[in-house]
Amino acid sequence: MKNLLESGVHFGHQVKRWDPRMKKFIFAERNGIHIIDLQKTIQAIKDAYEAVRKTVAAGKTVLFVGTKKQAQQAVQKEAERCGMYYINNRWLGGMLTNFVTIKKSLLRLKKLEKMEIDGTFENLTKKEIAALGKERAKLQKNLGGIKEMKEIPGILFIIDTRMEAIAVAEAKRMGIPIVAVVDTNCNPENIDYPIPGNDDAIRAITLFTSIIANAVVEADNEVGLKIIETLGDEDEDQDQESLMSDMSIKEDDQEVDIAAAIEKYSTEIPTDATRDEDLPEEAEKGHRIQVDVDKIYGDIGE
Asked: Phi and psi at residue 165, in whole multiples of 5°?
């Protein structure tokens, strides 16, 4: 709650610019500006966080979309931090619905980059080099964030659904879930996981984007831990199998001292076979933060 207040997430647009469909997310009106209910914002963030985490854990990717100036830097930085794809300059029509054509442009971009590295440019004229360089720069500007994307993403995170209306329409047509920051002038009905909040303030945008990136990082860590645990379990199984095979070797014509055998194997088998996997995870307990909202917003209005 404190981070949201400091980032100005609660400030909406002027009352005359509101979308009536956002009424359920609006707490009050102060000085001609709508104030967003931050308790609903917190719950929406939890739902969106869980949706992104599950999507990444299932092996799918996240596409960050934010082409307005306030969002460009944050979208690129956080997407690169969590190893996902982003669009921060311009949404090209058909980027999801006509991904086959987009992949051709991506291959062209990779080819131009390879030509620049392998010395092909040395055999070309200055005019040809300039033309190819201009083409590469244009492709890099629009498609650099999805250069390694081989298939359509599993979920979209969008800043400002009004500005990215084409992205929303394409995602709905392709059946891709959408997580989006919706301001008081936006329509939340077409969004699977709407997060009511200020989509114009740089600090608010950075906060939302970093939260989604953290969900991706957490999911990646979970997948990595599962792989490690699986390998550990396989090693334990192999140890147990080898131990059982050793114990089952038949020794003909020999008397076995049962007491000595028990003592021998009890020292070789670890007595503590349990592992502490019940570490507390405060972020997943789902506790709601109890805050005197009337007092907070009253202070803001004054």
From this structure: -60, -35
